[in-house]
Amino acid sequence: MSVFNYILFPGIIFAAAAGAAVCWIERKISALIQFRSGPPLLQPLYDILKLSRKETLIPAGAPAPVFLGAPVLGFSALILTAMILTEAGAGRGFAGDIFAVLYLLRVPVFSIFLAGASSPGPFSSEGASGEVRVFAACEVPLILSVVTVILKSSGELSLAGIHSIQSYEGAFAASLSGFIAFAAAFLCLMARSSRSLFDMPSSGRDIMGGVFAEYSGPPLALFMLSGWILDAFIPLLAVLLFLGGSGLSGTLLRYAGLLLFSALVKNIFPRLRIDQIEKFFRYPVTAAAAFSVLLGGLGL
Question: pTM of the predicted model, to two decimals?
Answer without folding.
Answer: 0.92
